[in-house]
UniProtKB/TrEMBL annotation:
Family: Belongs to the CobD/CbiB family.
Gene: cobD
Regions crossing the membrane: 55-75, 81-99, 289-308
Location relative to the cell: Cell membrane
UniProt-recorded name of the protein: Cobalamin biosynthesis protein CobD
Molecular-function GO terms, alphabetical: adenosylcobinamide-phosphate synthase activity
Membrane topology qualifier: Multi-pass membrane protein
Keyword hit for Zinc: no
Keywords: Cell membrane, Cobalamin biosynthesis, Ligase, Membrane, Transmembrane, Transmembrane helix
Main location, first listed in the record: membrane
InterPro entries according to UniProt: Cobalamin_biosynth_CobD/CbiB (IPR004485)
Organism per entry: Brevundimonas faecalis
Signal peptide: none
Role description: Converts cobyric acid to cobinamide by the addition of aminopropanol on the F carboxylic group.
């Protein structure tokens, strides 16, 4: 398969969207997580100065990108020597996408929430968010699920596709490693602030373009989505997450953001949108918006494959 990898990305996107990842099979991201955890345990010691821990964090990211990018290059090189190697590239590419799994996770929240089963909805939403869920009501659960759906549309769908198209498997694998590192160590708490600095900054850089593409795909057919996205996206503490969350708020005409609790501590966040807090029915609508955005992304990949000269 020749660069850019439009057809490979489209095929992987379709495969993952239809089949998903088998639940009984360990995902390759778990191996990356094990490597990150091992390096963090070795180098992120409390007695080490913050400056040195930041340097160790930079080295950790260089190792991660080198190992995962090198693995992607090796698989791609082997595939290039095999008549059916394109299938291997597509299969490995599908492992780096999460369109189907994201839909399934949010659908698992929407089902009990629509039936008024708050305990089951809290258990389901705890699978995809890190905030405290014990006291969540319908609006809190719907907002948490919609925010996760919007943000993960970038992290789990658009960004992996973007890096797959322009970098093949090396680009896709490296992105997944960086994103996993950010979720594990890219935090502001004292333990992570210095060591995880490089992970957070690298993730911000690699998501900068995809986040804006993802926001545009969500807002594509909705003027209010564009208005709220362009007005509120920069309110978010993250340079990227606000684009998709604000777009989703505008499209659904709901209010997202606001204060939430993490480990018993209240965190104050800005609001996105001018309307009331979302309800269970808005989560159903959000899934439809997500599905449409995925469909448009797939069509763009097909269009790119047709238009790009071979």
């Amino acid at each position: 398969m020749s660069w850019p990898f439009f057809w490979a990305a489209a095929s992987a996107f379709l495969l993952e969207g239809v089949v998903g990842w088998p639940r009984r099979v360990m995902h390759p991201v778990a191996w990356v997580g094990g490597l990150i955890a091992g390096l963090e345990h070795r180098w992120n010691r409390p007695e080490t100065s913050e400056r040195r821990r930041r340097l160790w964090g930079v080295l950790t990211m260089l190792i991660l990108i080198g190992v995962t990018g090198g693995a992607g290059w090796a698989v791609q090189a082997v595939a290039g020597m095999w008549a059916w190697g394109g299938g291997l590239v597509v299969l490995c590419g599908a492992a780096g996408l999460a369109a189907r799994s994201l839909f399934d996770h949010v659908r698992a929240i929407e089902g009990p929430l629509s039936l008024g089963d708050l305990p089951a909805a809290r258990v389901a939403v705890a699978m995809i968010v890190g905030r405290d869920v014990d006291a969540m009501e319908e609006a809190d659960i719907a907002a948490a699920a919609l925010e996760s759906l919007a943000e993960s549309f970038c992290d789990g769908v658009v960004a992996p596709v973007f890096w797959f198209v322009i970098g093949g498997l090396p680009g896709l694998f490296a992105y997944k490693a960086v994103n996993t590192a950010d979720s594990m160590i890219g935090h502001m708490e004292p333990r992570w602030r210095a060591f995880g600095w490089a992970a957070a900054r690298t993730d911000d850089a690699m998501n900068w373009i995809p986040a804006r593409i993802a926001g545009a795909l969500i807002a594509l057919f909705h003027p209010q989505g564009w208005r709220i996205m362009l007005r509120d996206a920069r309110k978010h503490a993250s340079p990227n997450a606000g684009w998709t969350e604000a777009a989703m708020a505008g499209v659904l005409r709901v209010r997202l953001g606001g204060s939430v609790r993490y480990d018993g501590v209240m965190t104050y966040r800005p609001d996105f949108g001018d309307w009331a807090a979302p309800r269970a029915c808005d989560l159903q609508r959000g899934l439809r918006v997500y599905g449409l955005a995925c469909a448009v992304l797939f069509l763009l990949l097909i269009a790119g494959g047709v238009a790009w000269p071979r």
